[in-house]
Amino acid sequence: MEHNSRKYQYCIEACQRTAALCQQCASACTRDENISKMARCIQLTMECAALCTATAQLLCMNSSMAMELCNLCEELCEQCCAECTACNSDICRACAEACKRCAEECRQLAPVAA
């Protein structure tokens, strides 16, 4: 277990950081003057935060389902990154960067079979 925990550490940390930044981003976007234009960003960041949290938890538990969750996490982080990249706020840009890194970490752990 200790060996796997070390193997997963970078991905766990990336997931946890991304979850936190996604929550901050969603919260900030709810305060936008034109909240309706932020609906997709808010939805994606909330979903991404939830999935990143779950992925980190299952990696910590060395779950047999962790790699499947890593694949889903990678996909959702990429979508969230694309959405947040289009925004002008600092928190959205920070969220996009975290999502990009998290997707890369997940990809290294659980590459999708072509």
Automatic annotation (TrEMBL):
Gene3D superfamilies: 1.20.1270.360. InterPro entries: Csp_YhjQ, YHJQ-like. Pfam families: Csp (PF03860). It comes from the Bacteria. This is Four-helix bundle copper-binding protein. It comes from Flaviaesturariibacter aridisoli.
